[in-house]
Each structure stands twice: as structure tokens, then as C-alpha cells.
Amino acid sequence: MDKKQKIISGQKKQNIMIELVHKTEVYNIIGAAMEVHKILGCGFLEAVYQEALELEFQYRKIPYEREVQLDIYYKEQLLKKHYQADFICYDDIIVELKALSALTSEHESQLLNYLKATGSKVGLLINFGNKSLEYKRMVY
Predict the structure, then answer these.
(1) 112/125 Cα distance (integer angstroms)
(2) Is residue 72 part of a domain?
(3) Mapping DSSP to helix (H, G, I), strand (E, B) and coil, where does residue 128 land?
């Protein structure tokens, strides 16, 4: 493979990676979270950010449900325990909020488990607890 073929091959791989699931929707949710963080800053409890983000979703006409109880299955058997999502946006994106000094791998694992258990493809972990908004887009 010559140098020109390698460049073209690399561009094809790059184009495939650019195609993200729910790209526009995730962008809209993050934009709303950035606006909330810009106005409130850090230091509030998670419940304050959740209420403010709900208002921002309304202003931006982002479809959402708040504190949705989601069923969890094990080997196709419904469990008695449920997961309560902070938000479900666009009928399929789980949004989990935090107001912590730092996100950890445990928070990421928690969101991945929620995605796996519910069958949702995309989740957002958003942390309002720092001077800059921190977020992680996760795909299952």
C-alpha cells in the first residue's frame, strides 16, 4: 500500500468514527447543561442543577422525562429493583447528573450498567461540581 492509499484508508476510518449515535441530540443536551453551569456555576446540590436543567430543556424544547423509573431485567426476568434515571431525553438518551468534585470510573460503570440493563444505546454523565462543566458521552 503506497502513501496515498494509506491516507485515503485513514480518511475512511475517520469518517466512520465521526458518525455518532444521536449526535445532534447529545449536542443539544450538553448545550443546555453548559448554559445551566454558566449561570449557576458549581457548588449547588445535584437537585438544584436537575431543576434548572429541566427548565433549560423546556426553553430549548428538548423532549425529556424527569426521574423516570426504568425496569431492569436479568436473563429476560424482570427484577424487583428499578433504576430511576435523572432524565430520559429524546426517548432514548439516559442523562445522569452529578455535583461532585470529580467523576470516577465507578460513575462511568454505573451509567454503562444502566445502558446495558435498559437497552438504551447512549448515555450522558454530566457533572456540575467543577469550575468547568464535565461530561462523558457513553455508548453501549
Answers:
(1) 10
(2) yes
(3) coil
| CA–CA gap between residue 103 and residue 42 (Å, rounded) | 14
pLDDT at 119: 84
Q: pLDDT for 34-50, tens place per residue? A: 999 999 999 999 999 99
Q: C-alpha distances in angstroms, 104 versus 66, 110, 126, 131, 135? A: 24, 10, 12, 17, 12
Pick left, alpha or beta for residue 125 (phi over 0 → left; psi -120 to 50 → alpha; otherwise beta): beta
Number of domains the chain is built from: 1
CATH number (domain holding residue 43): 3.90.320.10
Q: Is residue 12 part of a domain?
A: no
Tens digit of pLDDT for each residue in 26-36?
A: 999 999 999 99
Q: What do you get for the CA distance between the two ends of the chain, in Å?
A: 34
Range of the domain at 69: 21-139
Residue 3 lies in a domain: no
- Residue 3's φ and ψ, nearest 5 degrees, are -60, -40
- Could you read off the pLDDT of 60-86 as tens digits, one per residue? 999 999 998 888 888 989 999 988 889
